[in-house]
Design brief:
mainly alpha; Serine Threonine Protein Phosphatase 5, Tetratricopeptide repeat; 2 domains; 3-stranded mixed sheet; 21 helices; elongated
Length: 390
């Protein structure tokens, strides 16, 4: 961890499925011609680009002070250093804001503000996968695609709408979602950002093949509800449309060379925040998608008590045929592992209570209160206990 952080700090200090093989090989050649642009300065305020920067500066102030922004200094520094390892000369111009929003997304404004959503960070299996998405965003920024989009707009009402949104809507997340038209890049821009992102990953020493895996994992999750249309719209696909061949194209760009995946390093970085993100994923209410995610996580680490709790809670809440037995199996298993989430015992108590297993419910509730006596719902759990005891 220390060695990697030293490398990242050094970079910042210097500021500096398978497709047709012939087509893939040809695309792999394209990466050698991708050059990182020269670092650019702030545009004049009286230009169209300068006006857009001004709007994003105002938005950034809201992001900085927002209650959904993750203000954990160690984690903010981790993300900033990761981005600097990719950004090179652009490092001083990029500011990273992690936000606690349970959807897979990231975006970068033309003024250097990058926003990374917790749903993306929960789904990334390693640092290389996160770097793949952030490198893609840096590609849009370095090549100034947002400005190109702005200048290509023929209907000035689009820009007027954006100005109104940024100036008047109450929360920055609503503004980001509503202004998706500005950040909906063309197929050409997406392809260029993919190539630049893979180039930045390789230069920073990451295994660029993970760029394909992160998109493939997300598509598998979305296919549960989206079927054949998965990946055409929704969350990140509203601003980053994908195609059936995107995984193949990214694999071609990555080539055969390996590199750093940073799995253990990433796991340690997100550990203090991860349980909260799992709770947010449960509350999102997309149970089928969440189960695909949790199944994948448990296939990698079957003894992950946090994810066993999360999957058990999904089963408990979904209440389909057989879900109570599935929930009981997951929650009971989580409760027997080292350091299970305290909420595991509350959920076990509720499940046993529903099954009219009074003694087991009381024991689970007592264990929950012993682990978390000041929990927001502790008074309610005590009332359940009082009802269960003779």
């Amino acid at each position: 961890m220390n060695d990697r952080r030293a490398f990242l700090r050094s970079a910042c200090r210097h500021c500096v499925g398978l497709g047709a093989l012939a087509g893939l090989a040809a695309q792999a050649q394209d990466l050698s011609g991708i050059k990182v642009p020269q670092r650019f300065g702030r545009p004049a305020a009286d230009t169209d680009e300068g006006g857009l920067w001004g709007l994003m500066d105002r938005e950034e102030r809201r992001v900085r002070n927002s209650p959904v922004t993750i203000h954990d200094r160690a984690f903010q520094q981790y993300l900033q250093e990761l981005v600097c390892s990719l950004a090179g000369d652009f490092c001083p111009d990029v500011r990273v804001y992690p936000v606690r929003v349970p959807h897979f997304n990231a975006m970068m404004a033309p003024n250097g503000m990058m926003i990374v959503w917790s749903g993306l960070m929960l789904r990334a299996e390693n640092e290389a996968q996160l770097a793949a998405v952030l490198g893609h965003e840096l590609g849009h920024y370095m090549e100034r695609h947002t400005v190109e989009q702005l200048r290509a707009m023929k209907d000035t009402a689009v820009l007027s709408t954006l100005v109104g949104l940024v100036g008047g809507v109450g929360t920055f997340l609503g503004q980001i979602g509503l202004s998706a038209g500005l950040f909906a890049f063309s197929r050409e821009h997406e392809g260029r950002a993919d190539r630049m992102g893979v180039r930045l990953m390789k230069h920073a020493g990451y295994d660029a093949r993970e760029a394909a895996n992160v998109w493939d994992n997300l598509l598998q999750e979305l296919k549960v509800t989206g079927g054949k249309d998965a990946g055409k719209s929704g969350d990140i696909f509203d601003t980053h449309p994908t195609s059936a061949g995107r995984r193949d194209e990214l694999l071609a760009l990555a080539g055969d060379a390996g590199g750093d995946r940073g799995e253990e390093r990433y796991r340690k970085a997100i550990a203090p925040l991860r349980l909260g993100w799992l709770h947010d994923e449960i509350k999102r209410g997309q149970y089928e998608e969440s189960l695909i995610l949790f199944d994948r996580m448990l296939a990698r680490e079957p003894r992950d008590a946090q994810v066993l709790f999360a999957r058990g809670e999904i089963y408990r809440l979904r209440e389909e045929q057989g879900d109570d037995a599935r929930a009981l199996a997951d929650l009971d298993r989580a409760s027997r592992l080292p350091a299970p989430p305290a909420e595991t015992f509350r959920s076990l108590g509720l499940l046993h209570q529903q099954r009219n297993e009074r003694a087991a419910a009381a024991q689970a509730f007592e264990t929950f209160l012993a682990h978390s006596p000041e929990a927001p719902d502790a008074a309610m759990v005590r009332s359940y206990l009082a009802e269960l005891k003779p």
